[in-house]
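SEQUENCE AND FOLD
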Amino acid sequence: MHASITAAYLARYRSAAADSPVELLPLTGAQRRFLITRRLAPQTRSDLAPLFFAYPAGTLDLPRLDRAATAVAAGHPALCGAFATVRGTPVLRTGGPSVEVARIAVAPGTGAEAALRAALLDWPLDGPALRLLVAREPDGDEELLALALDHAACDEQSIGALVGELTEAYRLDRSPAPGPDPQAVADFRQAVELQLAAEEAAAGPAAEAHWGRRLGGLTGTGGAAARTTGMLTERLPAVEGAARSAVFPALLDAVGAAARRLHRTDDGLALGYPWGGRPPGAPDVLGCFLNTLVHAVPSRPAADLEALCDAWWDDLEHAGTPFDEVVRAARAAGSPWSGGLDAMLTFENLQRRPELVLGGVAGREVHIDGRPLAAPTAVAAAYGEDLLVRFVWDAERFPAAEAEAAFADLLAVLRGHL
């Protein structure tokens, strides 16, 4: 039996950490993929997790916001120091808060959204883990705040915690510390080590056989990450009661329909989606503890959502298998798939995320298109008072008319199921 990818990483990490003059912390499988991708393809952008909020003009005090953001970051190793590659091994090098708070100039004839979009597109490859950027049109009555994180430093659970802590630190005008205390560093190390142990345990023969059966037929047209994107949105009624458990499988089927339309094929497409969280007993630290699961898009929409749910539940039995091991299992089963994804689906429960209250004002969340994608198309579903579905596509690859037709297919399948 081959050695697991996680075990090989741990051996290299321990060797690098033993020879380092500064403390190096290990990374989860998801964090390593972000770093490896940007090192292998330095022309690509960093993977970002941005949120955008609108406030009445004059609400935000930037020096106070800077102090609050730095104070919050100082308590979390994932937002301090720098992600680095030491002797070919991805690590987190400990250090002080990695934060930037800045006002972005709005060029004449453009707008605040365009200014923030351009600033995020120019995010340095080795830039800060947390950026808060503010832009306001000269005569506008609102200012926009982009709260953006390096995805290697966060997941959905982290974003919710960060928003709550930032609200409190701004309210109290908290003074920053020089960096995380030893207990915070120890907690981060423990959480990552427990995650790596779970990843290694989930990479056994049973998981390899499962993913080989499920994904052996993938071909994956994939493609380079999109740099110019378009976006379509739709709000659907909230799903109540027992039917809520079917929302995610229904989304998988609906996104598959859109992918088939855009890629003009019925076979071999790979749909990725993040899943998971901190392992049992792990400290509740900021970081990226998600795994990317892969759904083989079927050749047609599911006539019976219950059957699709059953197959999805089978996949969740092996949700801890690291993505790299899943790719290896698919290839061992005869697939030529290299791991590129044809579509991505994310799902966020807004009822678990607090409001970002600054200066006594709760920010109104807005959505800005045009940011880079890691796949040719992506769907972000947010569940709150309703179900907000945002469909984003590579505008250089797919004409707008094709994207609109694909989105119509998506909504038809989703409404049919829900």
Observations:
- The two ends are 44 Å apart (CA to CA).
- The mean pLDDT is 91.
- Residues 182-201 form the longest helix (20 residues).
- The longest strand covers residues 48-56.
